[in-house]
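Practice problem: predict the structure.
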Amino acid sequence: MSILHNYVEIAAMILFGVGFTTLLLHRNMIKKIIGFSIMDCAIFLFLAAKGYIEGRRAPIVENGIQEMEAYINPIPAGLVLTGIVVSVSVTAVMLSLTVRLYRRYHTLDIDEIARQCRMEDEPDIISVGTVSAPADENGKGAN
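Answer:
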């Protein structure tokens, strides 16, 4: 069995590697979502390739042939369809959260968002020189 016989599985592994490196190396949230989607597609391609058996037909009984060896297994195709639906849902949630983060922090860089979050969580330190005098009943401070 040569390596060219499994070219679909090899392509799926290469796609998964591309998606994984994109997910790890880029700081932009949109690029991370694209990497995640590439990984999803690679998994679906791999499952579809593993579910196909050359010389067999779709699992629809025709001409009275009911032997199991004449048909492919429909479970990998069902898993791929279910996975696509879940993947689209997860991608939509990730994109909506990215939009919310961009509206709040005005950046898509994950390091910058983390820095701004840390700045928000730190307590404000009031220096002694900036304390103002209490206001009187007219709302004016003492001079």
